[in-house]
Amino acid sequence: MDFCSSFLGSKISVNKPCRDGFSVTNLISDSKQEFLCEGFVRTPVNIDIKFILPIDIYCILINTEVRDRKISGLKLFANTKDSEEHLLPFSIPKEVEVEIESSLNTGSIIKAFKTRSFKNVGVSSLQLVLTSVSPNGPPGLKRLQIWGQPTLTVSPSLKSNIIKLWSSRSKKKQCEKINMNWFNSQPVKEEDNSEAVKEISNDGEKPIPEEFLDILTCEVMRLPILLPSGNSIDSSSLEKFIAIEAMWGRSPSDPFTGIPFKENRKPEPNILLKARIDSDINF
């Protein structure tokens, strides 16, 4: 899984100003636009990536070329569960040709780093320091991918949740087709254009995804809770249900199965769903 993705709840920031339209958030979005600092910015530049849960990193792919410049020096630091910052030891950078995104032209040069240390296990955040650029000028990156999986200490339910999320995204990407009209000068056919106009002129309230809604109240969840049954409901709904059950002398249980909660079967915050809701909906 590529954890350099806002879809998986990752956050990214940079300590220097970015050029308009070339924000560092492009690196975790589907915009396919590169990241580039303002013209007056010089190295070093620190890019911080925070993950929604601890991960084990297997490989980091970096396209270091933006416009007519290349990043010629960089360092990677990882924060693990012991809260200490470690410099990640990587094999000697090797230029390889890798096709990782359709947005990258064939033959793009990618910097591939394969970790060979326990320090890449249980990583909660990464810092990428751009130390030099050639020729001298504002630094930037075309693409960044961080491949890995949830670390062993992540609960099975959360691990299963994020795997399902990634799988659904992968299937969606495979189904997407390129609109070839974008690449030529031929006008779009009238019927296609009218469909596009219909969508744009639609009053347009974006439909709320069904998975954002509490099954019990049909309202958008503010703090989704993942139950042992696999269903997610808002924390307020669970609290009300537990309170009602207590009135009848019953212990807290799953509203959908009636099975009491235990240490190995208990509700947990659905942090992945929470991240998706927060990114799509403003309360």
TrEMBL record:
It comes from the Eukaryota. Residues 211-280 form the U-box domain. One of its GO terms (biological process) is protein polyubiquitination. SMART domains: Ubox. InterPro entries: RNF37_RING-Ubox, Ubox5, Ubox5_N, Ubox_domain, Znf_RING/FYVE/PHD. One of its GO terms (molecular function) is ubiquitin-ubiquitin ligase activity. One of its GO terms (cellular component) is nucleus. PANTHER family: RING FINGER PROTEIN 37. This is RING finger protein 37. It comes from Armadillidium nasatum. The lineage of its organism: Eukaryota, Metazoa, Ecdysozoa, Arthropoda, Crustacea.
